[in-house]
Amino acid sequence: MIAPPPGIASLTQPEALARYATPERGAPGYTSRVLLPANAAEIAEVLRAARASHSALVLSAGRTGLVEAQRPAGETVLSLEKLNRILSIDAGAMRAEVEAAVPVDTLNAALEAHGLVWPMEMGSTSAATVGACVANGSAGANAVCYGTAAHLCETAWGLWADGSETGAQTGPQWFTPAPQVLAIDSAAPDVQQGLIGTQGVLGVITRLVLRLHRLPAQREAALIPVTDMPAAMRVLALARDVFGADVEEFEFISASAMALVRALKGEAFRWPFARDPQAPFYLLLQVKSDDAGEELAAHLYGFLTETLHQPDDALGYAPLKALKAIRHSITEASNHAMKALGGGRLAFDTATPVEVFGDYLAALEAALKQQHPQVQFIAFGHAGVGGAHLHLLGTREQPVQAHADALIKRVFDVTAAHRGTFSAEHGVGSKWGAAFAERTSPQVVAELVAAKRQRDPAHILNPRSFGLDQLVSRA
Ligand SMILES: Cc1cc2nc3c(=O)[nH]c(=O)nc-3n(C[C@H](O)[C@H](O)[C@H](O)COP(=O)(O)OP(=O)(O)OC[C@H]3O[C@@H](n4cnc5c(N)ncnc54)[C@H](O)[C@@H]3O)c2cc1C
Questions:
Q1: Which atom in ligand 1 lies closest to the alpha carbon of residue 61?
Q2: Residue at 66 is within a domain
């Protein structure tokens, strides 16, 4: 355990430590000290002291990460929460300079007055921080339009884990990926990007210049029932033909996910359709326009009726907020169902190339039904970039943990057979360390291990993430 360098705030009282030890998902961890440096110079001091004393650190920002990266297992927690200033907003250049631990919503509240947005749409943005999003390459529901947080970063500055300065690091540009290409893959970090996308195992991002976008003049959305996911992907191709880069979101919701939302909302649930379409899947298509004079609603209506030939009673047209409320209720609905069923949950965040995404989901559901018919399969997510959030729910009689290894293997095998990744945007953390060693290409693993040795020679920063504690000692 590191002794705090003089002048750096630290917490040791058990009641103050508890919130730093508890990840968003997974078992609580434990720590006996949290360090709260106030700026980059103090972080550098902490890193140098940790290196000198071979004391491990776990990074903590908004603590919304889903892969247990921020969960300490006895390490000192290095909290970035004091790096929370918006340094400048340049509306003309559409850039904002910020410290790393500014929450996404805080930044966007400041940008709204300028008609600008840093477009990361996630359920966690009230707490999730910009630096963590860039470090993790996080991807929101609108990644199909704007790319990941890494693409929304022009420059990041920070410290390597040995305490030395990284200099300026440039975020990649976003191009709409070809359908045969895997668009998002946080299981294959590119060490050439430095701290961007390498999820805090090489160093700490302290400051960033972010690429901003104009707030659209208009947005419209529709819920579209489809017979299967291959059909859904044909809708995506048609939407791209008609709306081009103005397809802002293209999400999917399985009937099982929709049923959970209906159960959660009860009487308050409103279908946006004249009749219940009883479809196996629903798409949430959101389009935008920068032209306030465009008849966007009529344009979308024309797409639904003339391009997709949807009958009037299957037109899922409702205010955007109402449709979004359905999409954003799925996780809460899944939490309720998990508690009621009492058999636990396995959660996955996979992705495949868009061209095989529909076939992938169909194959995965069939494989799980055949091998584990007792498991409830909930699927939803970012179909526009081939991303799927998968929740497998057990029952008290048949808990998922009893078959966890077999279920994880099945999901990951089917994903790999469709050229997919076991972690689209949530990262690897300590949760998927074993999968990283087994399933990521040996070249990517070797490059990360080599970079870890170079940038973190004492192996002090997030030492268990990616299973690097095992991989580095094995190499
Ligand atoms: C309800 C909910 C919805 C979510 N939806 C999405 C989603 O749609 N898409 C998505 O991608 N994620 C999603 N997430 C996951 C999460 O919000 C992201 O992973 C986010 O990047 C974590 O930010 P944080 O500030 O909470 O980081 P923390 O959880 O505090 O940190 C996690 C790890 O990130 C790294 N890290 C943090 N800050 C830095 C830094 N400055 N420099 C280097 N490394 C750093 C460290 O390894 C750290 O251990 C969701 C989470 C929740 C709870």
A1: 30
A2: no
